[in-house]
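Running low. Got one?
___
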Amino acid sequence: MYPDQKSISDADQRLTTSQVALPKNASDTVYATTGYQASIDKFARLTLATDNVFGDDGGVHQVGTVTGDVTSGYQVSLTVPIDTTTKPTGGDAPGDGGAPPGGGAPPSGGPPPGGGTPPSGAPNGAILG
């Protein structure tokens, strides 16, 4: 979500990120159209209560208002209150390109584990996988 349309192309201007859930009747109508046959069974098993994003509250705060139809298209709106005084604290990629926190060299302390006799039936020195 951005403060205005002009800011959409600048990720640093984002206020928040959200997702919107669609009402079941609108989704049912779309899934009944040609092209969705392969997804109908999956859609039938998923509900807002069981969804991994909306399941915490059944989507009650994320269900948008839908207008339109499958022929002319849909418009979805959702009123989302945003506290613009709160600094975002999550959702950004790590600054170092994704390295795990802590970094550093791997532990040392001698030769790698191993040695001994390979299990019965395993060729000596072979890489299995």
User: Anything to note?
Assistant: Helices lie at 24-31, 40-45. The longest strand covers residues 65-69. Residues 48 and 99 are 34 Å apart (CA to CA). Strands lie at 65-69, 73-77.
